[in-house]
Write a structure and sequence with these properties.
Layout (H helix, E strand, L loop, with lengths): L1 H21 L3 E6 L2 E6 L2 H6 L9 E2 L1 H4 L1 E8 L9 H19 L5 E7 L2 E9 L4 H9 L4 E6 L17 H5 L3 E7 L3 E8 L6 E7 L1 H13 L6 E4 L2 E4 L11 E4 L5 H15 L4 E9 L1 H30 L1 H24 L7 E2 L1 H30 L4 H33 L3 H33 L1
Parallel strand pairs: 3-15
Antiparallel strand pairs: 1-2, 4-6, 4-14, 5-6, 7-8, 7-11, 9-10, 10-13, 11-12
Helix pairs in contact: 1-10, 1-13, 4-8, 9-10, 9-11, 10-11, 10-13, 11-12, 11-13, 12-13
């Protein structure tokens, strides 16, 4: 007896929590005797020093903006290095877009009929020429050293790469060593400490240039600049004559891999050409969102009416469970955006969500039909309910697992809107199983118990 009650009140608490997360920010709301009611779920995060908000992250088709598809020219890149080169170009583009100040950009790679492509979606950006100019240029790698300390001419910080002035002083000097002199970069481990470090391997000409630089900069800093920004500033401890070097520091493995990828982007520039470009207006996105929400609400109401007419009291309980299901899924969308791996809602994602509502109802129909069969055999309501759930479970499990497998395949091999659809559908299926097996069953147990 205690278990149904505990589950029932746990579900009520979870539902109230989901409602709190789903509600938009409300200020100075007045309801009868209650004045100036403020509702802000994101304030909870701020109490824990987390500068994030519970918001729905909207994709390009809802927010409006620019979508650009680049083709990467791999003709001059060895086949064994093409994947690394494409990922390097993707990393460079992500950093450029972030410096551009775009909110929630999406950068992903794809391979279509042997072509390597990079798809960039920039919500809120409508100047497509500026976006192409920002993204499509080749990465530039350079090395900087300290200049003459008594030079009469002092360089302006604004004319230098970001961070060079602060690190090297007022007269930094750009060396002749560039990304074209770097053969490749990789991650290795310090044999003494075991810490990750970034290994640089230069060409023969690059090795000579690097040796000259390190000879004249012993106990001094040499700044490594990529895309007009300092990414590392190691201090030279001794001349390096072997043609390769390591960058040491307080790296974790992920940071070392990132720096290596950035350096390879300079060493292996991938020429990009614009394959497709589209500008989506915010008005179109807003209109599409309203129509999608309207369709979802109408579909939800029709399902509720159908369930109540066909199953009566059981249908009413299932409708409440369906409402809780929708609240839980929406709260998951919001909560996920507190993390770096948030869910971006697109029109295809909304379609996946609406489809998962239908699947949640399908599970309830299977259960209720089994319960009706047991009742026709003369079993009590509580007994018929338990047997109906246990016998319907295998069908529900198999159908949902097959859908999850389909979603995984779509997410693994699809791109863009297909991935969004697959991810939202998978989340909806998992929550719908919880809704049908746990929420609906707990409500029915609580009903018959009382």
């Amino acid at each position: 007896m205690r278990k149904p009650r505990f589950l029932f009140f746990s579900i009520i608490f979870l539902t109230l929590l989901a409602v709190f997360v789903d509600l938009p920010k409300i200020s100075n709301l007045s309801i009868g005797p209650f004045k100036k009611i403020n509702i802000d779920s994101s304030a909870v995060l701020r109490n824990f020093k987390i500068n994030k908000e519970f918001v729905f992250r909207r994709g390009l088709d809802l927010e409006g903006g620019t979508s650009i598809t680049f083709r990467a020219n791999m003709n001059d890149i060895p086949s064994s290095q093409r994947t690394d080169a494409l990922n390097s170009a993707k990393t460079i583009i992500e950093r450029r877009v972030n410096l551009f100040g775009v909110s929630e950009p999406i950068v992903q790679t794809a391979s279509v009929n042997g072509d390597s492509r990079i798809i960039v979606e920039l919500p809120g950006v409508t100047d497509i020429n500026q976006a192409i100019s920002l993204i499509g240029t080749t990465a530039e790698l350079s090395f900087w050293e300290e200049g003459a300390t008594e030079s009469a001419k002092i360089a302006s910080p604004s004319a230098l790469p970001l961070g060079v002035y602060e690190i090297l002083g007022p007269n930094p000097k750009k060396t002749s060593l560039t990304g074209s002199d770097l053969q490749r970069s990789g991650v290795s481990f310090d044999p003494n400490t075991g810490s990750p470090q970034v290994q640089l391997i230069f060409t023969s000409d690059g090795a000579k240039k690097f040796a000259d630089i390190t000879k004249r900069n012993v106990d001094k800093i040499v700044a490594i600049v990529l895309d007009n920004q300092v990414i590392q500033a190691p201090r030279v401890s001794q001349p390096i004559l072997t043609g390769d070097a390591v960058i040491t520091g307080k790296f974790i493995l992920e940071d070392a891999k990132l720096v290596s990828t950035q350096l390879n982007a300079g060493a292996l520039p991938v020429p990009l050409s614009v394959l497709e470009q589209r500008v989506i207006g915010p008005t179109l996105g807003e209109e599409s969102l309203k129509k999608s929400l309207f369709a979802g609400i109408i579909g939800f109401l029709i399902i509720v009416i159908f369930m109540i007419v066909l199953y009566g009291r059981l249908g009413t309980i299932a409708s409440f469970a369906l409402l809780i299901y929708a609240l839980l899924v929406l709260s998951i969308f919001k909560i996920s955006n507190v993390t770096p791996y948030g869910i971006t809602l697109t029109l295809s994602g909304i379609a996946g969500f609406i489809l998962s509502i239908g699947m949640a109802v399908d599970a309830n129909i299977l259960i209720f039909e089994r319960i009706k069969e047991e009742k026709r055999q003369g079993k009590r309501n509580d007994v018929a309910t338990e047997i109906g759930f246990s016998r319907a479970w295998t069908s529900i499990r198999d159908s949902n697992i097959s859908t999850l497998i389909t979603s995984i395949v779509l997410y693994q091999f699809g791109t863009g809107i297909v991935k969004g659809f697959a991810l939202v559908l998978a989340i909806g299926v998992l929550v719908s199983m919880f809704s049908a097996i746990i929420i609906t069953r707990t409500f029915l147990r609580f009903l018959y118990e009382n």
